[in-house]
Structures are given as structure tokens and as C-alpha cells.
Amino acid sequence: MTGAARTEIPIRPMRPVDADTAPFWDLVDQGVLAFQRCAACRRLRFYPQARCPHCGSPEHSWDPVSGAGRVRTWSVQYNAGDPWFREHLPYVIAVVELEDDSRLRMLANIVGCDPATVHFDQRVTVVFEPVDEDRRMYAFKPT
Amino acid sequence: MTRQSPVLLGAGWSAQSRASGVTPLTLAMDAAYAAVADAGLQMHEIDAVLCFGRRDGPGPLLMASALGLPTVRFFLEYDGGGYASNTVVMVGAQAIESGTAKNVLVYRAMNGRTGSHRFGGEQAQPIDVQGAGGQFIDPVGARAPVIGFALQAQAHMQRFGTTSEQLAAVAVTMREHAARNERAVMRKSLTVAEHQASRMIASPFHLFDCAIETDGACAVVMSTVDVARGVGKPLVSIRASAVGAGSFPVGGSGWEDESRLYSYYLAPELYERAGITPADIDVAEIYDCFTFSLMAQVEDYGFCKRGEGGPFAAAGSLRLGAEIPTNTHGGLLSEAYLQGLGHVCEAVSQLQGTAGDRQVEGAHLALVTGQGGHMGGAMILERT
Ligand SMILES: [Zn+2]
Q: Which of B135, B141, B150 sits opposite A82 (nearest CB)?
């Protein structure tokens, strides 16, 4: 962060990227939700890591998914420590089960709707929100 | 080395407050001196020092030096929160059993309200940001521990019809018990209506579903059966213990049912090792970072059927004198935020018969648990 002026406008907290996760975030910045698919057992995995947690294989490809999913559980936030999220109260955090593999679940924000309308098994699809000129962040909105 | 039988010999506390005005080291020392006195020992006899935490309190080497211990044969600082309380006690017992050490001090100290360890405030410490989990938490605004449990509670409500009023009953019972505990920070009575009217934090949790934030410390002293006999203390031993962890409960790809805490997997293991059933337990000290975490564990540890924790709590079954007196000290929800070691201390008091106004008559077997979402630890303590 440079300059005093920028501290007045909260910036969305973003991730420190590492070598395991950089491909995932690079694709998010391009508006693509993709996961590693194990070349040996063919399972998709999340979170990104060098070896498959199911069979141990290091071989994989990055496979885009449809972005469709369902809400398994959710919580509406009325309190936030982070200044950016405090300006966005109330916001929704959900566990989204992805259509491409029901075992694949992501913690994500549900956006584009009244938080009070979020419900179990709600059908949602991925969207990408701008963070700054270069970066985007994934979220889901009702379909 | 001769194998020794470990016992929990004494428990001690610092003052518990909203603002201690002293360092965590001072709190830790207050608790240590109280526990050593309760154990009937002298401080210089302590030869092992163990603690857990998130680098928010004094480590064991600083403590050993501050307490002037002449010889420390074993020390450990375990990086962990409320799920670690039982683990560290278990390791202390193993140090005694193996002959590595004789008189073990276990403590937890922090300025949990005025210091760096906060649940959701700006001072909340970053979770490990390497690889799985951490770096996918902050960008969705999910750092506060309340969120994981809120997601799990919502899943439980969806699956079993659990209600917020039923969670309120847990909070009300904790407050009733705290009223009998002179140490407790929150002793004013609480009603279901007051719970319902309290502000929302993270749905389905209201403020009074959440543990209180406090400054304080507590400590346990363990030793051998021979030492306990020498100082004339009742023999409180670990009949069984179990710790475990699974994949991340939310947001990962390994957790089949978000409504389950790790206790779902841990409880059968614990009872099998102990060779007893839930009906044998006289008093339960169950980790209650949130009302839901206590309620779900009451199910998992077999005091009622899975999914029936809400009605069970609402019927008053967790009260002193009822089916299973639970958190007789008031727990994290009303006594103090001691991250589970307070539950161990309370169980020691109950089994030694020194719990005063909140004593469970003839308490012989106690369940003590620690709990995260996807990890936990538990012990069955026994007065032999
Ligand atoms: Zn594989």
C-alpha cells in the first residue's frame, strides 16, 4: 500500500499467492473457474496442491468447470473485522457444491440478491467481481 | 525407567476479567501458583511445563524461568486453540507415565479480550495462509472462527429442524451455572427472549450464541499416584483419551456432511477405549465456543440421539441435577474464555468434590472435550 490517501478507501483483502495456488488465481483473474484434475484417478480437487489428496499423484491438468452449483449451507454476516467487508455488511458466506462434482465444495460469497433470500439447495452460478485493474475474485449468484 | 500412573492433582485460576491490566505472563503465574498450591506441592517440584495457544501468551521456557524452576525435564508449546486442551493434558500424562517427568504443569493464559487474540475483531490473527484453507478465507471475509460454526449450525438446522430458541436454551443454562461460580465473568441471568433480542453476529448466531472474550489463565498440575497419596489428594486419572482431525469441514473436498463436528467421529473411539457408555458419565464439561458446538457434541457423545440436541437442551437436560449436568462452571459462554483448559480444571474440581455450590453429588466419571470444526480432543476422567 502506498500513500495515505489509499488507506481511506478500504481495499478488499486478497490472497498471498504461492506456487501451489498461482495457476488457480491466474485463471480467476481471467474470469475462469478451474480446478486441478488428477491424471491418475481423474478426481477434481480443491484446494490447489501439488499432489492429489486421494491417490498421491503429482500429474494433473487444470480443468475449467461449468460454474453451476448449489448452496449447501450459508451464513449472513452482520459483523466484520476487515474494513472492506464492514462496508459490505450484511454479506453472505456459503458452502457451494459444484455441479461438476458434488464432492467439490467451495467457501464463497453469494452476491446479487437479498441475503434473506439465500436458502438450502439454491441454484447458483459463478461470477467474477473486479478487485482492481488486474485482479478478479469469484463469487456465486442465484440463477 | 519405571512406568508411573499419572493423575490430575490440582487446578488453579488467575482472576478472570474483561480487562486484566496485567500481562499474560502474570496471569499464567497466578494460575500456576494456585494450581501448585491446590495440588499440595511446592513450585520447585514442577519438572515439566506445557501449554497451548496461538503465540498469545508466555511460552514454557519463559514460564519455567519466571517460576524459578530448577530443572525442567520436558516442555511443550502446542500451536492450537480450543481443540488442543485435552491433547496437551494427554501429552503431559504420557510424560509422567514414561518416567520423563514427575510433576507436570499445564497452563493456558491470554488477554483474550484486551490482547491480540480476538474472535472477529480487527486484531484477529491471520490464519495460516499457506496452501489449503488460509488464502481462500480472507478474500471471502471468512476469517472469524464464528463463521465455520455458523455454517455448520445452519446445516444442522436444515437437516434436523434445530431452532435458534433451542440454541438459546444452551446459553441460558450456561448462565445459570455461571451464577453459582464465583470466578465467572457473566453471572447475570439470561432469558431466551434476551438471547433472541441480542444482535445477530453471523446467522444463525446471535451475540449470546458466542463465547465471551475475557482475559485470564488457568492451570492443571499432574503427578503420579504415589505423589497424590503422599499429599492426601483424591486420585483423578485419565480413563481414556482421544484426539483426531479430518479434512476441512467447509470449503474443502473431504467433508461429507457439514452438520457434523469432529466429535461425531471421535466419540465412539473414546467410549470404546474407556469401556463405558454415555449413561455412566456423571458430569460433562463440553467445549462451548458457540451454543451449537456444545449442542452438537451432546448428541455425538451420546446423551441424546443425533439431531435431538436442540429439544434435549430446551427440556433443561443440561442443567445441574438434570440428565447430564453440563459445563457446571458456565463454560466459554459465561465463565471465561480459557480455550478448554477451564473445562479440564472444572472436571478436576468436580471429581475431587471441591466444586462448592455447583458440585455434582458423587461425581465419579467426567467427560471433558475440546473442539474445533474438523478436529477435536476428549478425555474421560475418573475418580478411582
Ligand atoms: Zn488422484
A: B141
DSSP assigned state of B73 = -
pLDDT exceeds cutoff 60 at B121: no
| Residue B243 cell numbers, joined | 484426539
Position B53 pLDDT exceeds 80: yes
CA distance B214 to chain A (A): 18
Mind listing the pLDDT tens digit for each residue in B318-365?
Answer: 999 999 999 999 999 999 999 999 999 999 999 999 999 999 999 999
Q: Are B366 and B350 in contact (CB under 8 A)?
A: yes
**What is the spatial distance between Cα B120 and Cα B126, in angstroms, rounded to a whole number?**
11
**How confident is the model over A79-134, as pLDDT tens digits?**
998 899 999 999 999 999 999 998 889 999 999 999 999 999 999 999 999 998 88
Q: Decide which of B38 and B245 is more confident.
A: B38
Closest CA to B253 of A74, A100, A86: A100
- Residues with beta carbon < 5 A to ion ligand 1? A 38, 40-41, 52, 54-55, 57
How far apart are alpha carbons B116 and B213 in whole angstroms? Answer: 11
What's the gap in Å between the CA of A46 and the closest CA on chain B? 6
Query: Which residues on neighbouring strands pair with residue B370, listed in sequence order?
Result: B377
- DSSP-assigned states of every residue in chain A: --SSHHHHS-----PPP-TTTHHHHHHHHTT--EEEEETTT--EESS--SS-TTT----EEEEE---EEEEEEEEEES--SSHHHHTT-SEEEEEEEETT-TT-EEEEEE-SS-GGG--TT-EEEEEEEE-SSS-EEEEEEE-
